[in-house]
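Field reference: sequence -> structure
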Amino acid sequence: MTGETQATAVDTNVNERIAIRGDHYCFGCGRENPHGLKLTFFGAEDGGVWCEWTPARECEGYTGIVHGGLITTVLDEVMGWAVSHRQIWAVTGKISVNFRRPVEIGQLTRAAARVVTEQGRKLTITADLRRASDGQLLADAEALFFRVPEETAREWQERYIDPSAWGEPSPPQMP
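Structure field:
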């Protein structure tokens, strides 16, 4: 395709916490939403991002199994931050999720995402959710994101990124 470029890794400190402000109600990463997931994101070697997630009982669909909508939410959120980590602000236009194995309530998982291609306003992002204990693939996704207007991007950058948060202690290495 003309104008399509492969995304290259951004210069980032691997496993450094992404400086997301907590004073908002985003269901995925906001700290003020009492029903939210409160995810924390870290830079990955491939220029993407990752987070850990232990689904609580409130995430249940069938007994002991996480609802697919919440799995999709986690994958969408990690893909959104993979884009924002590149200092690009965009919204999900289309997402396709493959549920590979049941995700169990209380099971520590890791979600990871990276930008694959950029073409004008369009970005293609991939993500996966794996069981943390053994790396078993539980779900994966591909999404098409669209850049927001520059004015909106500036507003969101100021609203959601906290430069003073960089350099906090890093979690264990992602396998």
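Note: Residues 68-84 form the longest helix (17 residues).
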